[in-house]
Predict the 3D structure of the following.
Amino acid sequence: MALSFSLQTKEELARIKSRRRCCRQAELTACLRLGNLPVMGEAKVILLASPHAVLARNVYILAKELMEMPVKITARRRNSNGRTIFKVTANAAEQNVQDWLAARKEVPQRQCCQAAYLRGAFLVNGSVNKPSGNHHLEYVISKEKEAEATRLQLLMQQQQLQPRLSRRKRGFVLYLKDSEQIVRALSLMGAHNAVLAYEDVLVYKDMRNRINRLVNCDTANLSKTVETGLRQAENIRYLLKNVGWETIPANLQEIAALRLQHPEASLKELGQMLVPPLSKSGVNHRLRRLELLTNRIKEQKQSASAKASYSK
């Protein structure tokens, strides 16, 4: 079954191996702080329960190296949906795990550690929409962890990210809606394949929007040209019907004849048909003179009609 973009991003992040020990600690701290950490027994604590093997393996490796307590990973198939759940457990009292987290309660100060913390938080409770859909990246945090939501928001702000914090019935949601902010967040966490996929879609959308704008602009210009040409041809027909060719100045007769024959032509095209050719401004000037002549004849007829009505 094809993975969603969000799960592909998580699998990419889970395979990142930080070189610095402080970064690995920051990533594990975020995974445990923002995960659920249910108590399994007096001497066992579930560090992670996930259907994703790569995520469970990542937490297992980090916990085994950094927590200095026995850690193991188990797999169990659920009967309800048939999915395998991977559990990472520590053979230690819950207080020992809480003490380990309490020793790392401050927000990491190094940029590399902050990026690792964001990555760990995303692995356990983050998601991101596919680039072709609505732009949305979020962290979902349970309601009893308001302090962790505030801590994560502060850390993101230190990385020039501006997440919004929303209170929901079941907890808190930190989310980004701006595509550039999402790309920055993915890049900080190290999801370079996801960034490339996101940027490909953004470039495609930008090109499509530009093409649509150009097409719409060309369509509008074409419509305007045709409508103007039809109006000008109608004016010329009005002149011919009411006053004839003789009253039209000789230097306007050629352009009038061309406009009647080619009502859809642009000013540039009409100018190229003349002998010698004429510029767009020259063609426009002559057509405006024809329009003024038409308006004058219309006003004269209206005035004559009004006088005739008044005399009756």
Q: What stands out?
A: DSSP finds eleven helices and eight strands in the chain. The mean pLDDT is 83.
